[in-house]
Amino acid sequence: xxxxxxxxxxxxxxxxxxxxxxxxxxxxxxxxxxxxxxxxxxxxxxxxxxxxxxxxxxxxxxxxxxxxxxxxxxxxxxxxxxxxxxxxxxxxxxxxxxxxxxxxxxxxxxxxxxxxxxxxxxxxxxxxxxxxxxxxxxxxxxxxxxxxxxxxxxxxxxxxxxxxxxxxxxxxxxxxxxxxxxxxxxxxxxxxxxxxxxxxxxxxxxxxxxxxxxxxxxxxxxxxxxxxxxxxxxxxxxxxxxxxxxxxxxxxxxxxxxxxxxxxxxxxxxxxxxxxxxxxxxxxxxxxxxxxxxxxxxxxxxxxxxxxxxxxxxxxxxxxxxxxxxxxxxxxxxxxxxxxxxxxxxxxxxxxxxxxxxxxxxxxxxxxxxxxxxxxxxxxxxxxxx
Length: 386
Known about the structure:
Distance between the termini: 36 Å
Number of domains: 3
Order of helices and strands: EHHEEHEHEEHEEEEEEHEHHEHHHH
Low-confidence stretches: none
Helix content: 40-55%
Shape: globular
Radius of gyration: 24 Å
Number of strands: 14
Number of helices: 12
Strand content: 15-25%
């Protein structure tokens, strides 16, 4: 992903906690003295409304309009009033008068309250929280990872856990006021696993909902995912794709799923390096290759441009049947685009499609198990949100 303009690593909900970063995360971030979450949130830029005017090109007069309001950062606006060349432009955005400002404290102070009360193994979540806040566009766009040391999945043979949490963010530019979704980070390889729950989004229009209840429901969903994630991974490890019998390489597998070439190549490199055999790779390892490429080499922005690839990567783990069907459709479309006309190439294409279909048939024994687990998880999601 594109590097943030600034980033802040935090540990503990506030200054009263004595939280330390987990060793695997501290090695990655090399931060000796992280801030508390409350401090980091209150250091984020705010937005306030001020009136907007336009210059009449015929009279050079400035005419105020009530149809729009400028969103400015108040501290920077003060600097602009006293400095001839302020360091940062205070203006974020000029939306219509239907725009609703939601500042970071509005969203994340209710989270702080919930974390002080909720526990994991009799320990307050606020005492084990840690993560990172990233700023873009002058601080008008913010994304953060919030994780909980001890809310985790441990895989056999690995010393570092997959740690659960949420990724959340907001912007002042009209795209979304705030969003949140389930998240995990694999300490073994620093891969980020996103969209582990449905993304919840609040727009910049209308009344703001009760954020405290919102956070309680989301954290309950994340705990449910933590309970089931090990089982999904274990099942996916039992499903091998025999690339020696398929008409495409590992790189082409990711390309057929819609990954651009530069990501497909990186994903394949990681999957082949971590597989017991480069010719038979299980679905968990293929998923891990995809998250490796997206975490470390994606060239776009956090947000919607990343989300489309995250959904594809997650299907490799949670919906292997859908993944193979997608690959089969893409391969068939590729054959049609090549313009086969009943020649020997067409016959080879039919054989290739048949080999993909056999893989799909072999998956059927596992499909019901995946579907039943996902359906049960969805039902539990509904129970905690109703």
